[in-house]
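Please supply some protein, with fold tokens.
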Amino acid sequence: MDPLPLNLNRNKNMKYEIEFPENYVKPVLPMGKEWVAALRSGKYQQGTQFLRYTDEEDKVEKQCCLGVICLLQQRPFKIEGNKTVFDYSDCTLSRENPLYKIFGPVGYFPPGVRVFQEKWDVYYYSLSGLNDLGFSFAEIADIIEAIWDCQ
């Protein structure tokens, strides 16, 4: 069974392909339309390693792609130092988040789906991996739409 590649390259430096298993059916992703619109909006400054934090150098609030969805969901949060803790985690989705059932703590892709990134000759299996290793919010939004049925 050969994967079915999909190439959505927006960033000329970040060439990638999405590979799907044969007969792949997109799973439903609640709030998906709102999420990808927010990722493309320019309203959110992209950060890495934490859901949301204030950069100590430039004092700008930054979030990873999963932090953006936590904000849209209006998850319970508290500020601890320069980080925002949603539910009880500052770097992964908590089990209390309804999206945890869809893609676990780090935004895992459905079984058999992976993103191949040519520059470093590596496969990615999660949204947080894409976010923390150089994919832009716009690219992540494209990938979300390609993998999930955004509702």
